[in-house]
Amino acid sequence: MGKKKHRGNPGRSASPKLGATYQAAKLANYAASAGVNAAIQQGFTQGAADQTFARMKETAFIKGAAVSGLDFMVSRKIHHANALSRKSLTAWAPEVFAIADTAIAAREGSPGWPGHYARVKTGFAPGVLQGFQPIDKTMLYFGGKVLGGVIRKLSTAGPLRSASAPVKKILGSMGGAL
Fold first, then answer.
1. Cβ-proximal residues to 9 (8 Å cutoff; 6+ apart), any chain
2. What is the pTM of this model?
3. 50-85 residues labelled b (16+ CB within 10 A) or e (exposed)
């Protein structure tokens, strides 16, 4: 009996990795953010549906969608999903910032907290703080994401390679990555 041949790349799984799944969920959250706050405030009524469709036609939502598309392109360029799947500290830092900021808004009783996550990620603020506000937290999120990509690149092929080796070793022993 001969050896069984593997089809495709034997090192890769057919199911999506953690990073790709997280990014797909992030995009779904943005798409749903226009209607979630309306549904929470009004219930699943025709008024909530009308309000959702009206918001999706607003310039603010369209600008937020453009930022979300830019986020997707930047993520692809800096291999963000791969880094998330490797449990990279530099990749998860801006994501944890967005999640923690949303949790703080929810804890403080903000009625628009489901849309707060979308605001941090894209600048689009559905609900109570409506409109497109890409300053402050959105810029911190993008800055952290790009800076993390630069650090990862420099630590593998640049001047930080030897300096980052001990940090990588420690993080690797804990199941993480730089």
1. none
2. 0.72
3. ebbeebeebebbebbbebbeebeeebeebbbbbbbb
